[in-house]
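dumping this here so i dont lose it again. seq + smiles for pyridoxal-5'-phosphate
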Amino acid sequence: MKIPFNKVYNTGEEEKYVLESIRSGSHCGNHSFCRKVIDIMQKKHGFGEIFLTPSGTAALEMGAVLADIGPGDEVILPSFTFSSTVNAIILFGAKPIFCEVDPSTMNIDVMKIEELITSKTKMILPIDYAGLPCDMDKIMALANKYSLIVMQDCAQSYGSYYKGKACGTQPHIAAFSFHETKNYNAGEGGALVVNVERWVERAHFLQEKGTDRRLVLSGVKSKYSWVDKGSSYLLSDVLAAMLYAQLKNEDIIKSKRGLITKAYQKLFTSFANLGKLSIFQVQEHHELNHHAFWVIFDTIDNKEEFMSKLREKEIAAYIGYLPLHSSPKGIELGYKVEDLPLTEDVANRLVRLPFYTGLADSGLDHCINSMSQVLNKIYN
Ligand SMILES: Cc1ncc(COP(=O)(O)O)c(C=O)c1O
């Protein structure tokens, strides 16, 4: 039985809503399905103002524009993240300051942020890797102490909770992804959440190509004009219709995915207890959206053997991110491999396991049995 790394999940309602959107005659952004999606997101998780965007990448970029990130600014972020996180700030001329991760979560190490803050620091940009929330209380406390902006990259954490608060509700701004590899899929899609009331009107202008078109739509003005910088940060209504089907079924999707986390946790905890490998440490104050599962092996050789034996069994497992500081672009910007030895070390030993909603219905037992055989071969 072939197990891919990821596979899209359809709830069965997508076609109905997409067709409805097509037939409505309005396919651009901020139409009826966009409003339905925003409503469902707000009611379910209590976010501030929500802007549906064409991707998580676009949401991060819109957030950077909203925060007025520019030349001379420094932004602190983990090196263990996706290119979109860092591109969102270098596109506007800011300098990334990479911080080490905490290997028990693979999120930014909050104990190492303060030493990186300078008079040029403008933003902290943490991510919730694999949907596990980063330590937002500590990050927000630092941001308040030094008057910094926090943009949380929640691309992977829609539906995760930290101390009873949905990821994305605590920072000034947060970016979500609804790419097909995420728990809730619009094909391509994203959202920017703006939790600062006084930034909301401007965010509407930025999303609409720097115009005040929103004031025309709401009847305040008769003609719209160019009022700010901006771009086209809008999700098409047709894709919002697809996303609506997914978000309406959020709890079903989440509980199916929860079965996968539970099964992986059971298998890998026994090896972790023997000191052979480590898995993420979920605390009582974390509620997972069950986006992904990773394992850090004791040696690179054991990681390679695990992956190659799984490949022989047609089960796809992948490495995580290649750290940004030691990637070709990071080196070009002047960073050195040895700048972040801990990130470099753990990233080299990390494997992400196949994880998609349908795996809970078919293939999970096969995956667990095959992985168990491989682990026993490696470690016994
Ligand atoms: C941490 C992180 N940030 C940003 C993104 C970009 O999201 P999108 O693919 O929707 O542009 C991703 C997508 O994989 C991601 O994992």
